[in-house]
Structure formats: structure tokens, C-alpha cells
């Protein structure tokens, strides 16, 4: 991916690579949640039967970079001034993920927003919290609520009426994506906007502690709850004249809620009432839809992505995943951009994810269907690049179900086998990568690395992403495995890149298509040696 803007007027035409030919089919396979860790019973990738990937054994790690809240300048922007108009007579509602995982939101950004809004006139604030347990440890919701309650208490001491009003677990309430299950958003709407939920509590700390008493409870899936006063009345439904900010900075799990909050013509579920509010996102979550129309921080410009370069140079692309990861091979891949660069050269295919069925109940997910679609696209020879995301390691791993994750890892391996066999048939090239770990370590551990156990002696399962490497290469840790009959003789990994990572993949893919990467890209991972 580009790290600095190209010179103005820089041409889109890519130079031909001097040693690598054009015209080879390139299969790009992203294994979501697939890391490297020492073998033990809680490493589901090790335990699972994965002969195809065992034979390759080469993939490394990356961290999603969050978009930081601009210090101070946020309060000078049009988005903040827009919601500020509601401060005198209305309530400021803040909705988002209560977490310091840095993937969708950051707790310190919420703290800054609370402080800054109160200093700039907000007199009544209600926070609607979504518990995590996915990007951070399950059970950490209690600690985050305690910290938030301390901050709100300090605001109350300063005369600001600040309280938590509602909440629920991120995977069950509000934060659905790619229009997979609108009922998730409806549960959030009912709790945040209408003040209605099956569980009512006097305070949020009581709520998360009580709901977590269920033996099967998990922060990700806590049911919706509302906070009520002494008379049983909800303390913070969203009303006409109020301001609402969704404080997640990542787009995918906020777009659906943004549509419900902003669109007057909306038919995905019965909203019961549609309050006249001033709504702003932390950022604009969809540049194509201009959604939301007001936002606090200007979104970063992500230009000249590899997908656009390749489309402008005639590379035909097929991208496929199931619903829960479809945006990862389209929207995110293309720099937070919806739609095609060139409809005549591109085809994006979404396989519907199972709705209302937990991933550990159907741990194979749609891995084989994705692989079959990719195989057909490869064998059709209609595409130069076939790109997929296989999500079992991540999505099943997040459930904390070790047996199910092992099944999911086996399904991933079977899917990869199907794709590589197709690449073999057409004389193509494959490039295999992963975004972060998950399934390779399903146990919480102490500082010495030993699994933590609960009072009954059972190992405490880990449901969050890991920071383990996603590669077993020894000489150069890069998130990559490259091969296939179409790979030119003499291609090898470079030895002069001290800290290579996912940012280097874009230039590498361009090389495999027979092009030199633009000079403003991170360097390629490969070189060609010999004659």
C-alpha cells in the first residue's frame, strides 16, 4: 500500500517487470485469524488436521492501525459544531465499543470525547456501551465499565448529568456488518433509542456483572440492557433534539446503525419512532454513500490502492468471501471504497453467511463454498487475480469453542487445497497471507505462558485476537507464502528487509502480475536471482 502520496500528475500506467511475465493467474488467499504459536492442546491450528497448510508453513502477523482522534482540533470542525447545537436543551448520546483494543474504538478516545464535549457545553450525556471480548479479553467489560463510571462520576461532580444508559454485547447488539443480520441492529435500536430491553438494571456495573453470571456468558454476546431510575423509567432514550455520536472509528460495524440513525426512508426493521436528532460519526464510514453526512474527524484519503492500479492496467479481478468478511476483500481492500474501479474488469461475489446460527455451531462456515467459487473463477481463465478471505480461524476462534475451532481450521485447510489445486491446473501463482492470529492460541495465559484456570480447574479460553506472528519463516518474517507452477525460477524472498509486514504485500502482488510497483509503495518482498 502507498505510504506517501505520489507526485502530482503521476501516471497510472505501471512499468513492466524486467524479470516477471504478465498473464499468470494469481490467487490471493487471506487466512483470517491464522497465526503461529508453539504446539499445545489449545493451538487449534496445530491440533487440526491441516496437511495442505502444514506443507506450506509460511505466514506472518499484522496489526490493524487505528485512526487517532485529533487532539483539540476536533472541536473546531463542522461535525462537532453541528452536534453542539443540541447541547443547550438536549442530550449528547455516545454509542460505541467499550474497549482499548484499537481495532474499532479506543477507550482513551471516548474519555477525550467526554472531557471535550463537557468543556464545550454538553450538560447532559448518555453513553451506550457495547462490550467487547473479541479484540480484548473476555470478562474485561467489568473493568471498562468501572473505569467509565469513574469518569462519569467526575463529570457529575462538575455539574454534568452523565450516565451510562444502555448496552449489550457487540456481536448480539448493534454492531452487525454487511447487512448480515438486521436484528442485531434492531436490538441496539430498541435499547439505545427506545430505552427498551429485556434486562433492566439500576447501573451498568450491576448489569454486566449480573449478565456474566450465566455460565455461557461472553462479553461479545451479552444481551441488550437498559439502565432505569428508581421508578423503572429508562435514563437515556434518544429523543427529538438530542445529539448522537457513534465513536467507533472503524467503519464496517457502524454503517448499518448509521443508516438507521440517518435515513428517513428506512425499511430494514420497524424503528417505532425516528427521532429528529443531530447525528455525527467519529468519521465518515462510507465515502461513496456519504454516510454519515456529518462526522467529527475527516476520514483519511486512501488513494492509488493496488486494486485501482491493477484495474487501470487491465488486470481482471475476482474477489469473494462470505458476508462477514466480504468487505475485507472489497471495501477495505480498495481503501474504504464501495463498488468497482472498472465493472468490465472486476467481479465481486458475496456468499451469504449463516444468519442466527453461532459460528461454533456451523464451524465450517462457508469456507468450501468460497473455495469452490474461487476454483471456478481460476479455471474459467476469465480473471488474472482471484482474491478470497477465509474466516474460520477468526470467527469460530472468537467463540472460544476449542473443538469447533479445530473443525473450522480443518475446513480452512480443505478450502486452501481446492484453490491451490486450481492454481496448479492453470499454471498460476498463489500468494497466501494472514492478517492476525486467533485460532493458534485459545487459552488465557499467565506471565510464564502457562494456561490460566478458573476456580474449578478449567482452562480459561481466550476469544480475542492474538499478537502472535502469522509466519513460520525464519530468515525473514513476512506474512506470506508464495508458490505455484507459474512462479518464475529464481524468485526468492529478499533478505534486506528488516521489518517487512503486510504493507509490503501490495507491491509483491503487483510483481507477480508482471508489473513494477510504484516507487511510493512499500518495497516488494521478493527478488529474482540468477539468469
Features:
single chain, 2 domains, globular, 26% helix, phosphoglycerate mutase (2,3-diphosphoglycerate-independent), 531 residues, 14 helices, 6-stranded mixed sheet, manganese, Alkaline Phosphatase, subunit A, 2,3-Bisphosphoglycerate-independent phosphoglycerate mutase, substrate-binding domain, 7-stranded mixed sheet, alpha/beta, disordered N terminus
Radius of gyration: 24 Å
CATH class of the largest domain: Alpha Beta
Order of helices and strands: EHHHEHEHEHEHEEHEHEHEHEHHEEEHE
Total number of helices: 14
Pathway: Carbohydrate degradation; glycolysis; pyruvate from D-glyceraldehyde 3-phosphate: step 3/5
Binding site for substrate: 104, 134-135, 170, 177, 250-253, 325
Domain Metalloenzyme: 26-516
Cofactor: Mn(2+)
Structure, described:
Helices cover 26% and strands 15% of the residues. The protein starts with 25 loop residues before the first strand and ends with a strand. The chain folds into two domains: 26-66 and 306-446 and 465-528, Alkaline Phosphatase, subunit A; 73-281, BPG-independent phosphoglycerate mutase, domain B (2,3-Bisphosphoglycerate-independent phosphoglycerate mutase, substrate-binding domain). By secondary structure, it is α/β, with parallel strands linked by helices. Strands 5-6-4-3-2-7-8 form a seven-stranded mixed beta sheet, with helices on both faces. The model is unreliable at 1-5, 58-71 and 472-479 (pLDDT under 50). Mn(2+) 2 binds at residues 435-436. Mn(2+) 1 binds at residues 394, 398, 465.
Amino acid at each position: 500500500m502507498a505510504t506517501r502520496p505520489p507526485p502530482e500528475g503521476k501516471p497510472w500506467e505501471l512499468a513492466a517487470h524486467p524479470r516477471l511475465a504478465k498473464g499468470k493467474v494469481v490467487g490471493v488467499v487471506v487466512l483470517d485469524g491464522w497465526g503461529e504459536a508453539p504446539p499445545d492442546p489449545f493451538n487449534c491450528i496445530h491440533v487440526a488436521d491441516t496437511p495442505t497448510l502444514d506443507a506450506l508453513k509460511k505466514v506472518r502477523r499484522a496489526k490493524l492501525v487505528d485512526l487517532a482522534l485529533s487532539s483539540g482540533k476536533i472541536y473546531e470542525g463542522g461535525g462537532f459544531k453541528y452536534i453542539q447545537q443540541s447541547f443547550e436543551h438536549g442530550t449528547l448520546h455516545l454509542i460505541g465499543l467499550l474497549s482499548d483494543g484499537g481495532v474499532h474504538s479506543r477507550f482513551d478516545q471516548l474519555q477525550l470525547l467526554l472531557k471535550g464535549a463537557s468543556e464545550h457545553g454538553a450538560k447532559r450525556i448518555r453513553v451506550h456501551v457495547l462490550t467487547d471480548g473479541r479484540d480484548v479479553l473476555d470478562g474485561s467489560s467489568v473493568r471498562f465499565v468501572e473505569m467509565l463510571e469513574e469518569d462519569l462520576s467526575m463529570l457529575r461532580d462538575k455539574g454534568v448529568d452523565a450516565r451510562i444508559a444502555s448496552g449489550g454485547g457487540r456481536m448480539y447488539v448493534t454492531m452487525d456488518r454487511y447487512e448480515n443480520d438486521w436484528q442485531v441492529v434492531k436490538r441496539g435500536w430498541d435499547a439505545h433509542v427506545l430505552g427498551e430491553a429485556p434486562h433492566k438494571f439500576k447501573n451498568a456495573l450491576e448489569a454486566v456483572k449480573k449478565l456474566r453470571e450465566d455460565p455461557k456468558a461472553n462479553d461479545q454476546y451479552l444481551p441488550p440492557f437498559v439502565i432505569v431510575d428508581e421508578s423503572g423509567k429508562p435514563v437515556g432514550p434518544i429523543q427529538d433534539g438530542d445529539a448522537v455520536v457513534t465513536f467507533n472509528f472503524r467503519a464496517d460495524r457502524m454503517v448499518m446503525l448509521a443508516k438507521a440513525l440517518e435515513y428517513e426512508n428506512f425499511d430494514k426493521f420497524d424503528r417505532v419512532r425516528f427521532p429528529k436528532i443531530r447525528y455525527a460519526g467519529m468519521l465518515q464510514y462510507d465515502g461513496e454513500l456519504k454516510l454519515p453526512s456529518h462526522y467529527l474527524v475527516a476520514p483519511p484519503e486512501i488513494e492509488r490502492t493496488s486494486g485501482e492500479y491493477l484495474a487501470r492496467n487491465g488486470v481482471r479481478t475476482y474477489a469473494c468471501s462470505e458476508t462477514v468478511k466480504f468487505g475485507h476483500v472489497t471495501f477495505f481492500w480498495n481503501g474504504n471504497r464501495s463498488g468497482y474501479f472498472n465493472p468490465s474488469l472486476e467481479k465481486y461475489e458475496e456468499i451469504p453467511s449463516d444468519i442466527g446460527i453461532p459460528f461454533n455451531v456451523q464451524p465450517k462456515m462457508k469456507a468450501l463454498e468460497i473455495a469452490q467459487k474461487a476454483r471456478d473463477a481460476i479455471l474459467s481463465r476469465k480473471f488474472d487475480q482471484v482474491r478470497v478471505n477465509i474466516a474460520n480461524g477468526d470467527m469460530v476462534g472468537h467463540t472460544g469453542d476449542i473443538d469447533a475451532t479445530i473443525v473450522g481450521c480443518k475446513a480452512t485447510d480443505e478450502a486452501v487445497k481446492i484453490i491451490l489445486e486450481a492454481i496448479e491446473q492453470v499454471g498460476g501463482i498463489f500468494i497466501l497471507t494472514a492478517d492476525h492470529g486467533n485460532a493458534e492460541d485459545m487459552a488465557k495465559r499467565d506471565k510464564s505462558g502457562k494456561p490460566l484456570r478458573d476456580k474449578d480447574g478449567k482452562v480459561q479460553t481466550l476469544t480475542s485476537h492474538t499478537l502472535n506472528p502469522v509466519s513460520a519463516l525464519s530468515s525473514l518474517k513476512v506474512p506470506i507464502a508464495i508458490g505455484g507452477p507459474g512462479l518464475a525460477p529464481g524468485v526468492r524472498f529478499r533478505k534486506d528487509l528488516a521489518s517487512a509486514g503486510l504493507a509490503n504485500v501490495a507491491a509483491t502482488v503487483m510483481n507477480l502480475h508482471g508489473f513494477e510497483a510504484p516507487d511510493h509503495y512499500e518495497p516488494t518482498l521478493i527478488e529474482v536471482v540468477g539468469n
